[in-house]
Amino acid sequence: MRTATWIRQHLAALRALLVLTVITGIVYPVAVFAVGQLPGLDDRAEGSLLYRDGTVVGSSLIGQSFTDADGTALPRYFQSRPSAAGEGYDPLSTAASNLGPEDIVDTAARTSLLTTVCARSKEVGDREGVDGRRPFCTKDGVGAVLSVIGPREPDGDVARPVRVVSVNELCPARPFLPTFRGVTVDCAHDGEDYSMGRIIPIPGDAPTAPPVPADAVTASGSGLDPHISPAYAAIQVARVARERGLTPDQIRAVVAEHTEARTLGFLGEPRVNVVELNLALDDRFPVGA
After folding, report:
1. 3-class DSSP state for residue 128?
2. pLDDT tens digits, residue range 44-100?
3. In sequence order, what are the beta bridge partners of 52?
4. Cα–Cα distance between 230 and 213 in angstroms, integer?
5. What are the angstrom distances between the C-alpha of 104 and each of 107, 120, 125, 244?
6. Checking phi first, is residue 145 left (phi over 0); if not, alpha (psi -120 to 50) or beta?
């Protein structure tokens, strides 16, 4: 009797396994595939691919770099937001930098997130002809961070500094501040450890709302985002118009056509698909035409 019960239980388990295998391994995938082939859905099911002259040139879901072989921005194109996915926008290496707001000190092995943001902001500002300064950045595009060395107070402050070092400005650079609390600020020596001091980021006199928006200097969580903010697109209009021999209004019209509203009217933010925008510009206003 016990053997018969054991056999019945295992036969029931086997039948359940076979039924669920058919449903989840065959019926469901086939149904999803069939739905994906319906008109209006087939494009998304195939990866939202973008074509030019019958050749796949990208996907509307994945960003691209619009730079030359040396990584210099091509001036006739709108630039995407930065990417930390592999060498850039690599779907097989989708990732963020995983660096947070406290990553402010450069090391010999790695540039801090703060200096990376500062450098990008300066580069964008110089390219677009806007103020690229940001709080906590030097005018040369590195993190404005001091190591204040001296006896510590109970609250961790250094009341009487004996030495102050601009930790992200290697000698022979001239520090962004000549003095701090009456002490001359020194440049940093490569390989020297300044962690014994109190690390203090300095806001500086940059505008609290920089003209260069955040998405121009920080990568997305996936590293694949093909979108930029309307604000980042707006500061690029003059350059693209100049390089293509057009008026800013002509370029703004194309940007408006490729600006997407919030999803369902309230999710996310308005955004501009850079890949689709640049393809549209080449189709409508080819360079040299």
Report:
1. helix
2. 556 577 878 778 888 889 999 999 989 899 999 999 999 999 888 998 888 788 888
3. 55
4. 10
5. 10, 15, 21, 39
6. beta
